[in-house]
Amino acid sequence: MKQDIGLSNLFWSVGLFLAWSGPAWAAPISTSARIITHAQTVANQINSSGSYRFEGNDDCYSFIRRTWNPLLDSISQPGLPVNDYPDQKWVKITSWAILIPGDVLATAQGHFWGGNWHAGLYAGARGGTYQVFDDTPSWGARQHPVSWEPNVFLWYYVPTHILLGGK
């Protein structure tokens, strides 16, 4: 027996958002695609408001939290941790090939304010070159090819990696 599904029904399943849109299911939108799209929106907001400021709202990790926390909240998950260094939920990157677009990257095994700590988002590969989203005083919030980051971003956050479909 066919069950009628109304327009207001929304489902979260393994990180995929599906919505009824008439006679057929809409194409699933991956969590990864949602995060990368939202990262661009947040980057535009930060850049239009004066760019990078180390004040807990427009700095590197705030950019990442503003990107991820709305999604985490919508699925009743806690937001990204603050001042959790050292934390075993951050795992050393052994190969950039295991990363999924939207992965949270860091320079240390957990977050701490100040010092030489930096955060970014893995944004996938384009033309064989790895890309990151980050927010810096020099460039503002933007996506760009990895240049110096392979020697800086050494850790990724496992809980969000799993939400993206990683192991």
Polypeptide structure, described:
- The structure is a single chain.
- This protein is of the alpha+beta class and 167 residues long.
- The protein has a single domain, classed as endopeptidase fold (from Nostoc punctiforme), CATH 3.90.1720.10.
- It contains three helices and nine strands.
- Strands 4-9-5-6-7-8 form a six-stranded antiparallel beta sheet. Strands 1-2-3 form a three-stranded antiparallel beta sheet.
- A hairpin with a 2-residue loop joins β1 (10-13) and β2.
Q: Determine and state the CATH class.
A: Alpha Beta
Could you give a short account of the major beta sheet? Answer: 6 strands, antiparallel
Measured as a percent range, the helix fraction is 10-25%
C-alpha termini separation? 37 Å
Spatial arrangement of strands, main beta sheet: 4-9-5-6-7-8
Query: What Rg is obtained from the alpha carbons, in whole angstroms?
Result: 17 Å
SS content category:
alpha+beta
User: What is the global morphology?
Assistant: globular
> Judging by the overall fold, what is the CATH architecture?
Alpha-Beta Complex
**Spans of at least 5 consecutive residues with low confidence:** 1-26
Spell out the CATH superfamily. Answer: endopeptidase domain like (from Nostoc punctiforme)
- Strand tally is 9
CATH topology: endopeptidase fold (from Nostoc punctiforme)
Overall structural domain count? 1
Strand content: 15-25%
Task: Determine the mean pLDDT.
Answer: 77
Q: What is the number of helical segments per DSSP (H or I, 4+ residues)? A: 3
Secondary-structure element order, as H and E?
EEEHHEEEEEEH
